[in-house]
Structures are given as structure tokens and as C-alpha cells.
Design a protein that fits this description.
Length: 577
């Protein structure tokens, strides 16, 4: 618009000059044609010459103004192009920041971009807590040995920015009384700096800081405007990252909350652990406990099958009635029938008086038939009839007695194979297996070993808080294959408490065979596939790192992965640390 107006002025001046010049030349021509000469003619020529000189000055001035305006316009166009490029980068960076969910990566990209785009020497982003105390510093071109200088700067320029909640631009730091005597400013040769707060709503997140060193060119207003706009993009990215971190933490806490809720619903304090596999077992048991359905509990020796059966009974409507446990493998087969059904006086040699059987004693409650796989095939037929009819006959009696019992059976044997081998009745199997619950072995619950260990330490140290276990000893326990499962672990801890020379259980307090076999069994035991072995190692190693560093951010840093990746691993490996 300005250039166009200048052109109009020049055209007007030219038009007026041409019009007046034409009149003057007409008058001069008339004077010359009249033949007159002398003073009047010379005066007229002199007047014309002065007009031409004035026109020349005026037109030169206007042309110079036009040229200056052209030059200013070129500078403005150049500046506009630079601003356009900057804001294109600002826009693309904003998209990048909002897609970057890892806080540290986001901050590194942000400070790298700002230092590069604003031609700064060094810079950093500072995050603060609710008390405006510095928690995180991510720097660019700041050598580690200058970290103390960074902190000193952050307590001056950055602190000023955060407290005042407004941008700060220092064109000549050495002339600023507040900052001139700061050791870091002198030692680092700071000449100019800009700092902008990072604010989301009414929450102060931190600040972004840039400086130039040993230079005469300060930051200009356009640099500050760009940094303010860029800070808004950083804030958007930080908010997204913080929201994701909060979501991850809530998702991480959800299993713990659900487990606590389940524990409130299904009382099972004797079943120690917080792992996902135990959670699945207890969740199924909680649903079963409210019914009278028969339950078959499968699992290796020492996994806690009887404890689970007792928990099911204790959470049922029969909890005030008897819970009677019978170990079918511990009672000779010829005596098991009389033990279960009872007998009348004189039913056999030695039966001097009548005795009720375990099923009769359990009337109204629950009978737990442990090691059901050890029961003889003939007795299995009689048990099947009792389950079907809810009727029993004592040995030597012809009277039938009605009973109301719930059956829970357990075994460590493969009943389906026993059925194939004609050692177990198929119809009894399906009568018992209305609900089947499988208790996992301890080697599949390694995440619970620390909690189980601490439980047994408390139990055998008289609930003393002074006893503990060393990290090295705990790692050995976590690597061992545990053929005897939880019962074996309990015996080992009891032994260690007795033999330990101090109140800390060390590897020297563990059985020698445990230490010798732990690594080999952990790596080669149970015929694991390569993928299974890798997953077990990952699970053990990540658990160890989490236990040592507590913070998941620190753990992710040690593992050289981002926080989101760590959360995915925790989920996929069923780690509830």
C-alpha cells in the first residue's frame, strides 16, 4: 500500500511538471517568434531552469523514498519468510510433541528444536513440582561438568520466570544488577537470555530457557514471540504425556485395587501373594464358594490345595459347620472305607463300639478329600453313590443315613491318564469336577516369592520386624525351580531362621544344594522353550530392577527403555511389582 501511494505521488509530480513545463515552453516560443529579446526572455528562461531544478529535487526525494520503501519491503518479506518457516516448524513440532508420549523424549526434542531455531548456544527445560521446586532438567549443549552451573542459573533466571509467571528477556545480562554477580553467569560468559514459563491452566509445569554466550547480538522480540508460542506447544505435549503417565499409573494400580477388593470379598489370608495367577485362582474360588457345587483342586504337592479348600469353605454358607479333611493317601486302603463311612460295633474284629465316619461328622459342612487319586477303585464306586444320593451306610449297618455335605477333592496326579489306565472312574471324575481349579506351581509364581518369604520369616521369627533376607539370598530363592513348591520354601525359611547367625538371612544360611541347583534349574529345568526361558529371565530381571530402584522412571532408565515400553512389559509378563 505504501509503495503504491508513493508511485501515485511521483506520477502526480510528473504530470504537474509536464503541464507547467508545456505552458512555459509555449510562452518561450511566443517570445522567440515575436523577435523580441532581452530581459524578459532571459528572465523566463531563468524561471524555467529553477522550476526544473526544484522538480529534480522533489522527484529525487520521492524516488529515494520509494527505493527505501522497496528495501524495507524486501526486509519485511525476508522477515515474513523467516517467520513463516519458523511457524511451520512450530506447527509440525506441535504435532510431533502431541504424538510423543514419553516425557523425556518429548523434552529432548523440544529443547533441541528451540536451541536450533533461535540460534541459541545452550538451553534447557525445567519441570517443577507443586511447590515450584525443580524436579527435572533436560539440557542441550550443556556438558555434565556444568550441571552445577545449570542449577545455579535455574535458581536465578528460571526461578524468576516461574515465580513471576511471565516471560523474561535479558539483552545484556552483565548489566542486570540482579544477575550480574552470579558466578555461573560470569564463568559461562552469558551475554543474553530468554526464559518462558510453561503453564497449563492454573498449574505451573516449569520453564524453557535459552541463552547466548560471549556474543553481542541479543535475542529480538520475534525470538521471544516464537518461544512463547513454542512453549504453548511444549505444554500441550507435556499435558498429553502427564495424562498418559497418570493413566498408566492408574492402570498399574488397578490390579492391586482389584486384588484388595477380592480379598475383602473372599477372605483368604493364608493364601499369600499378589500375582495375576493367584488372583485368577481366588477369583474363581470366590464365585464357587457361594454354591454347593463339587470342586476338584489340581496342583503339585505343596501348592496349597488344602488352604484353598478351607478358604472356599470359610467363605460359604457352610462356614459355621464342620470342615473335615481326609488324606486318602495317608490312610491304608483297607481302613479308608471305615474312616469315611464309620462302622457299627462288631462290624469287624476290634470294632468294640460304634464310630461315626468322617462324612457323617461333616454333615452340614464340607468334606475335603485330599489325594483323591490314591483311593482304590472299589471305594471310588461307593463314594460315587454317596455323592449321587447323599446317603451313607456305616460298615456293619443296614440303616441308611441322609447327609448334607459339600465335596471338595484334590490331587497332584493326572486323573485323565488314570482313567485311561482304568485306575480312576470316569463317572466319579465328572461328579467331582463340577468346577476345576488349578493351583500353579511356585516356579510359575516367582513374583510372589518375596512376599511368601517375608511371610514365613515373620512366622518363624515370632513376628519380629528385625529379621530380613539379603538381596542375594532372595535372588537365589527366585531362581530355584521349587519341586516342593510353597511347602519347600517354608521349610527352607524355617531352617534359615534357626541356623542364621544374624537377623539377616544370607546365601550362606540356605541349603548348599539350593544354591548349586538354583541357576541350572532356573535355566534348564522343566524343559522350557527358548521363548519361555527368555520371558522368565526378563520377568526375574525386571522384578529385580524394580525392587532396587522403586521408581518406574528410574527402572526404565536403567533398562534403557521408555516408560511406556516398561508398562507394556509389566503387563505382558504379569509383573505386579
Amino acid at each position: 500500500m505504501e509503495i503504491s501511494r508513493k508511485r501515485q505521488i511521483i506520477n502526480k509530480i510528473l504530470g504537474e511538471f509536464v503541464a507547467k513545463s508545456s505552458e512555459d515552453f509555449m510562452q518561450l516560443s511566443s517570445l522567440l517568434k515575436s523577435g523580441e529579446s532581452g530581459t524578459d526572455t532571459y528572465k523566463h528562461v531563468d524561471k524555467m531552469f529553477r522550476k526544473i531544478m526544484e522538480f529534480n529535487k522533489e522527484i529525487s526525494r520521492e524516488i529515494q523514498l520509494l527505493l527505501d520503501e522497496h528495501e524495507n519491503s524486501a526486509e519485511k518479506i525476508k522477515k515474513l519468510i523467516e517467520d513463516k518457516n519458523r511457524f511451520e516448524k512450530l506447527y509440525s513440532s506441535g504435532i510431533l510433541f502431541q504424538s510423543e508420549t514419553e516425557m523425556k523424549n518429548l523434552m529432548e526434542k523440544a529443547i533441541d528444536t528451540t536451541v536450533r531455531e533461535l540460534d541459541a548456544d545452550e538451553g534447557f527445560i525445567v519441570l517443577v513440582n507443586d511447590n515450584l521446586e525443580i524436579e527435572t532438567v533436560v539440557s542441550k549443549n550443556m556438558p555434565p561438568e556444568k550441571e552445577n552451573a545449570v542449577k545455579e542459573i535455574s535458581t536465578s533466571i528460571i526461578k524468576n520466570t516461574v515465580n513471576e509467571l511471565k516471560p523474561l528477556q535479558l539483552d545484556d545480562i552483565k548489566a542486570e544488577a540482579e544477575f550480574a554477580q552470579k558466578h555461573s553467569i560470569i564463568s559461562l560468559g552469558l551475554s543474553a537470555a530468554i526464559s518462558v514459563p510453561l503453564i497449563s491452566g492454573d498449574k505451573v509445569l516449569g520453564a524453557v530457557y535459552l541463552d547466548r554466550r560471549n556474543k553481542d547480538n541479543p535475542f529480538v522480540d520475534g525470538d521471544l514471540i516464537f518461544l512463547i508460542a513454542f512453549a504453548k506447544q511444549i505444554v500441550k505435549g507435556l499435558v498429553v504425556s502427564l495424562e498418559i503417565e497418570d493413566l498408566e499409573e492408574r492402570l498399574e494400580e488397578r490390579p492391586k485395587i482389584e486384588f484388595n477388593e477380592l480379598r475383602q470379598l473372599f477372605k483368604s489370608d493364608d493364601l499369600i501373594g499378589t500375582g495375576n495367577k493367584l488372583f485368577s485362582v481366588l477369583k474363581l474360588a470366590s464365585k464357587v464358594s457361594a454354591t454347593d457345587a463339587s470342586v476338584l483342586v489340581l496342583g503339585e504337592n505343596g501348592t496349597g490345595k488344602e488352604l484353598l479348600a478351607r478358604a472356599i469353605h470359610a467363605n460359604s454358607s457352610r462356614k459355621d459347620k464342620p470342615f473335615v479333611a481326609v488324606n486318602c493317601g495317608a490312610i491304608p486302603s483297607e481302613l479308608l472305607e471305615s474312616e469315611l463311612f464309620g462302622y457299627e460295633s462288631g462290624a469287624f474284629t476290634g470294632a468294640v463300639k460304634s464310630k461315626p465316619g468322617r462324612m457323617e461328622i461333616a454333615d452340614g459342612g464340607t468334606i475335603f478329600l485330599d489325594e483323591i487319586g490314591e483311593m482304590g477303585i472299589n471305594l471310588q464306586a461307593k463314594l460315587l453313590r454317596v455323592i449321587q444320593t447323599k446317603e451313607i451306610e456305616r460298615l456293619g449297618s443296614v440303616q441308611i443315613k441322609k447327609i448334607d455335605v459339600r465335596f471338595i477333592a484334590a490331587t497332584n496326579r493326572d486323573l485323565t491318564q488314570m482313567i485311561s489306565d482304568k485306575l480312576f472312574r470316569e463317572d466319579l471324575y465328572y461328579r467331582l469336577k463340577v468346577i476345576e481349579i488349578v493351583l500353579p506351581p511356585l516356579r510359575e509364581r516367582r513374583e510372589d516369592i518375596q512376599e511368601l518369604t517375608n511371610h514365613f520369616i515373620k512366622k518363624y521369627s515370632g513376628n519380629s520386624d528385625n529379621y530380613s533376607i539379603s538381596e542375594e539370598a532372595l535372588e537365589i530363592l527366585e531362581q530355584y525351580n521349587w519341586p516342593g513348591n510353597i511347602r519347600e520354601l517354608e521349610n527352607i525359611i524355617q531352617r534359615a531362621i534357626i541356623l542364621s547367625k544374624s537377623e539377616i538371612i544370607t546365601k550362606d544360611d540356605l541349603p548348599p544344594e539350593l544354591m548349586n541347583d538354583a541357576e541350572a534349574e532356573y535355566i534348564f529345568g522343566n524343559e522350557k522353550s527358548l521363548a519361555e526361558a527368555e520371558n522368565e529371565f526378563r520377568k526375574l530381571y525386571i522384578t529385580k530392577v524394580l525392587r532396587k530402584y522403586k521408581s518406574k522412571s528410574e527402572a526404565a532408565k536403567i533398562l534403557n527403555i521408555n516408560r511406556s515400553h516398561l508398562h507394556k512389559l509389566l503387563s505382558s509378563l504379569d509383573i505386579t511389582e
